[in-house]
Backbone:
C-alpha cells in the first residue's frame, strides 16, 4: 500500500519557518508519511482566498490524502479545530468556514469531529501556533491509523463561509472577481455557462471596459487582446492573451463583473 | 526499486492552486509516485527562461525521473504536447521549444512522441489547463509503466527555440545576460572559457562599466567589488561579492556583455 | 524502515534552479531518499536569519533527517564545510556559524567533522556552487549509510555566530527584533518569561510606541490593536491582531525593543 499522504495548505508564506516546523512535527511522529505542499501563499488570514484555493485543488486528490489547512486568524481563541470528512475528502481545519465551500452539493457523506482529546496534541500547546502543536500531531496520528472518533465528539454545527453569489437579472448577471492568478487572469464567481449560452449575444463589462472578444482559449485572440472565456474550473474568466488583465484593467479580487445580454426583441 | 519520480517545472507561481491541482491529479492516478518541485517561478510564459532553467537542472537528475514542464503560452491552441527522450532524460513538454536546448550535442539518442491518444487524458480537457488535464494524467500513466509508444506517433519535427549565440570578434566576444539569480549575479551566454583563456589580458564591459577584477570565486574580491568569474554552469558571470550586481549595474536579462581582449602586438 | 530524509535550507530563493540542481544530484546518487524543503527564502547571505530559522525548526525533526544548510557567502574560499552532530541532530553546514545556536545547552553530545575526502564530492567542483558539488553528494552518500568518519577529520574548533543577548537592567530589559514573520509579527530576542513575570506591572516600548496590551494570543485583543505576547518559540513578540505590526510600526529586524517595569516602591 502507498505511504500515507498529508497535504499542507497555509498562509504562513513560502519558506516560512512555521511550515518547516509543522513538517518536522509530522515527520517526527510518522517518518513514513509523504508531505505534499499544496500552497503556503494564501493571502494572510484571508478565509475566502483559502476557500477558493481548496475548492480548486482538493477535489483532484485521492482518498489517501489528509488535507491539513492552517489559515487561522482565530488561533488560540475559542474557535474549534475540526476533523472533517466530505465524501472521500478528509481534512483538518480551523472552524472558521474556509473549508465549507467543499460541502456544496454534498448532503449525506459528511462527518465532522471537533478536536478535544489533548492526548493527541503536543504536550505543550502554544497560544499562537496550533499548526505545529495541534494540527501536525493529530495529522501524524491519523496517518498512523488513528480512528478519527478518538479525536473528539461528532458535531453537527460549524462556522460557514458564505460564497459570494452572482446576481441574475433579466438581461445581465453580475458577480465579482474571486481570484487573480499569477498571469493576471481574473477568475470570477459567475458560472462559465452564463458565458457560453449561445441563445443571446453578450458582452462582459469589468472596470469600466467592455470585453467583446469571447473565446475558448487565450491564444484564440491576438496577443494583447482583452478577452473573456470559461476558466479551467468553469467560471467566467477575463484575461489578456500573453498579457496581464489585472494590471491592464487595474482590477483585483472583488472587482465587479457583469455579463450583459442583448435585450430580447 | 525506488518509487518513480516526477518533477514539476512551471510558470504557475509558487503556491499556485494550479500546481496543487496538477499534483492531485498525478497522485490520484499513482499514489506511490514521488513528486519533486523543481521550480514554479519561471517568469510567466517566458520560454527562454524556461530553457535556461531546464538546461541548468535536468542534467543532474537520474533516469528514473520524468520531467513535466508546463510553461505553455499556447495552451489550448494547435500546439502539440510532446513526450521526449534526450539521452537518458525523459520529458513531457509543450511543443514550444523550451526543452530543445537539451538537444545540443545529442544526435542519436532522441525520441519524440506527439501526444494523441486521448484515453490517457482526463475525460474532460479544459482549453486553458492542459497541465492538469493532459500533462498530469499522462505523467502518472508513464510512472505506472505505460509504454510511451502508446501515447501517440513518433515525430521528427518540433519547434526549436534559438539559443542566443555570442558574437566572436578578433578582439572581443559579445553576448548578453541570460539569467539573473536571487543574489543579483548576472549569468551570460558567453562560455567561461572566453574568460579563463590566459593568453591575453582582458576586461569585461557591461552596462557602461568596465570589470577588471577577474576571480575564481566571489570572496576572492573585497566585499562590494564588481567582479567577473566563471559560473557554476561554466558561463561568464558578473557579480558583486556580498552585493547585488543586477541592482548595482541596473542590469537585467538581455543586457549586453562584452569581453574585450587587449589587442595583440 | 523509513526511507532516509534529507532536508534543505538555503538562501537560493524559492524556485531557484540552484535548489533544483541540488535535488537532482542527491536523487541521482540515492533515488530512494525523500527530500523535504525547509525553506529557500533565507535572506541572501544572512547568517543570523539562517540561525534564527534553524533554531526554530530543526529541533522538531526526527533523527532520521539529515539537514543540509547552504547559506554560504564564503563559498569557494578557505571556509570549511562541516558535518555536525548536535544531540540527535545531524547537519551539513558551511563553517560560518549559522548552525551554532543549536549548540546552546548542549555540551557533550557534539561531534563535528570537517569535510576533506574529495572522493565523496562531485568529480568536478565549481568554485561557486558547493551546494551542488559537495553538500549534495555528501548528503546522498550519508543517506546511503556512509560512516561520517569517512568524510574527514574530527575537529574541535569552528566559527561561532554570536546570538544577540538582551540587556537586563534593574527596571527594564532591552533587546531587538530578531525575525519578522509573514504576518508582520515581530519576534524578539527577549525571553517570553520577561513578559509573563507577574510581580511587576510593565509595558513594551518599540519604535517610539508604548505597547500596554499584553495578551496570550492575538485575538484576545480587538482587531487592529498593537499587542505584546509570548511567541510560539517563547520569545517576546509584538503583533497587531489581524494587522501587520512591522508595517504599522515601521519596524524591522534589528529594531530595538524594551520591556519597562514599573519601578518598585
Residues:
Amino acid at each position: 500500500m502507498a505511504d500515507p499522504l498529508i497535504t499542507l495548505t497555509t498562509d504562513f508564506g513560502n519558506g516560512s519557518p512555521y511550515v518547516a516546523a509543522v513538517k518536522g512535527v509530522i515527520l517526527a511522529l510518522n517518518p513514513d508519511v509523504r508531505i505534499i505542499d499544496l500552497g503556503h501563499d494564501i493571502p494572510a488570514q484571508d478565509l475566502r482566498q483559502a476557500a477558493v484555493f481548496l475548492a480548486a485543488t482538493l477535489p483532484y486528490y485521492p482518498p489517501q490524502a489528509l488535507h491539513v489547512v492552517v489559515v487561522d486568524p482565530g488561533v488560540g481563541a475559542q474557535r474549534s479545530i475540526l476533523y472533517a470528512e466530505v465524501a472521500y475528502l478528509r481534512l483538518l481545519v480551523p472552524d472558521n468556514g474556509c473549508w465549507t465551500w467543499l460541502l456544496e452539493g454534498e448532503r449525506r457523506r459528511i462527518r465532522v469531529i471537533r478536536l478535544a482529546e489533548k492526548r493527541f496534541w503536543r504536550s505543550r500547546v502554544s497560544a499562537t501556533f496550533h499548526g505545529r502543536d495541534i494540527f501536525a500531531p493529530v495529522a501524524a496520528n491519523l496517518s498512523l491509523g488513528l480512528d478519527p472518533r478518538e479525536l473528539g465528539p461528532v458535531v453537527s454545527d460549524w462556522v460557514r463561509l458564505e460564497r459570494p453569489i452572482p446576481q441574475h437579472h433579466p438581461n445581465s448577471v453580475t458577480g465579482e472577481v474571486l481570484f487573480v492568478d499569477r498571469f493576471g487572469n481574473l477568475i470570477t464567481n459567475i458560472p462559465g455557462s452564463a458565458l457560453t449560452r449561445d441563445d443571446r449575444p453578450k458582452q462582459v463589462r469589468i472596470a469600466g471596459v467592455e470585453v467583446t472578444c469571447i473565446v475558448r482559449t487565450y491564444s484564440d485572440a491576438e496577443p494583447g487582446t482583452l478577452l473573456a472565456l470559461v476558466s479551467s474550473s468553469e467560471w467566467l474568466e477575463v484575461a489578456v492573451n500573453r498579457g496581464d488583465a489585472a494590471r491592464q484593467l487595474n482590477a483585483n479580487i472583488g472587482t465587479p463583473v457583469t455579463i450583459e445580454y442583448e435585450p430580447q426583441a
Summary: The helical segments of chain A are 17-29, 47-57, 130-143, 193-196, 245-249. Residues 130-143 of chain A form the longest helix (14 residues).
